[in-house]
Amino acid sequence: MAVTYRSAAGDVPAVRGISLEVAEGEALGLAGESGSGKSTLAMTLLRLLPKSARVTGEILLDGEDVLRMNWGRLRAVRWASASVVFQGAQHALNPVRRVGEQIAEPLLVHGIAAPAEARTRVAGLLEQVGLPAWRARSYPHELSGGQRQRVMIAMALACSPRLIIADEPTTALDVMIQAQVLTLIRSLIADRGIGLIMISHDLSVLAATCDRLAVMYAGRVVETGPAREVFTGARHPYGRALAEAFPTVGDPSSRMAPRGLGGDPPDPMRLPGGCSFHPRCPVALPSCAWREVELWPADGAAVDPADHVTRSTETRHTAACVHVLPEPEEESA
Ligand SMILES: Nc1ncnc2c1ncn2[C@@H]1O[C@H](COP(=O)(O)OP(=O)(O)OP(=O)(O)O)[C@@H](O)[C@H]1O
């Protein structure tokens, strides 16, 4: 799947050739610096991108291609089959409506429950996210940031979707509340068999919450695999830098920019040739300036080339770096 924004200055290739899969009850973490394309990828999944975005490829939700759904079908799928908790979503609540009414809305709009039943369901949802049922009568300004974020999670869960996409769901919260909300999301999706795609620039948050990680750089996935393995033994130099930048969950002293990496992430309109990371890479070889390596098993094991990008990336630790290829280049760095 790929996404290109059309702009007056030219085309912006924000997501370039990504293939990912999420199973029931599984949490996939998407990490990367600002501008790496994480939010674009998340918004694409439910076609929430601006009109200037052109999406190619396919996005299968229970075997049905989201990109080919008509608007009626797409409306039916949003909330009911898949829902998104946005970055700073707590500010998306309508300030003049009680939170209970707002949680009930997708249930009523999708005809899943009549008003009386919706009220009962809202009470149950609030309790599941750790809020007392009477909070349904509260207005958003009567709740703390963490409580509002819990309301957004209740809303995302309301229609029992198959997939939840959470884009930086805890970034605005303080460290203690952040940990509570992450634990809550994790246990709710595991109990209900919901797939989760969680987006963050903080690899430690994702490693603590997710089963698998995918690290994005300049619109591509450059490393993927079991969460602990990628976090503690990243094989792509960018994955390593990201893990070092966020050594522990919610550490306020963590740095936004990975330590030891000079420069900024590349402008997608002016991507360097070869591996997009090579100008910042501490272990780049001369060939990295012209050669872009596909995801490859990080243990260097030989695989069927037809298999290595799509299916095996889902379970194996893979990295798109010349240093994980089975036969290292005979070059000096
Ligand atoms: N509407 C748009 N038109 C043109 N370019 C865009 C648009 N939205 C995003 N981009 C560009 O696409 C690239 C990817 O942006 P995106 O927001 O997906 O990254 P991100 O990793 O989610 O960053 P952040 O963490 O800051 O949200 C960036 O270079 C951004 O400037």
Automatic annotation (TrEMBL):
Keywords: ATP-binding, Cell membrane, Membrane, Nucleotide-binding, Transport. InterPro entries: AAA+_ATPase, ABC_Ni/Peptide_Import, ABC_transporter-like_ATP-bd, ABC_transporter-like_CS, Oligopep_ABC_C, P-loop_NTPase. It is found in: Cell membrane. SMART domains: AAA. One of its GO terms (biological process) is peptide transport. GO terms for molecular function: ATP binding; ATP hydrolysis activity. Residues 3-243 form the ABC transporter domain. GO terms for cellular component: plasma membrane. It is a peripheral membrane protein. This is Dipeptide/oligopeptide/nickel ABC transporter ATP-binding protein. It comes from Planobispora takensis. The lineage of its organism: Bacteria, Bacillati, Actinomycetota, Actinomycetes, Streptosporangiales.
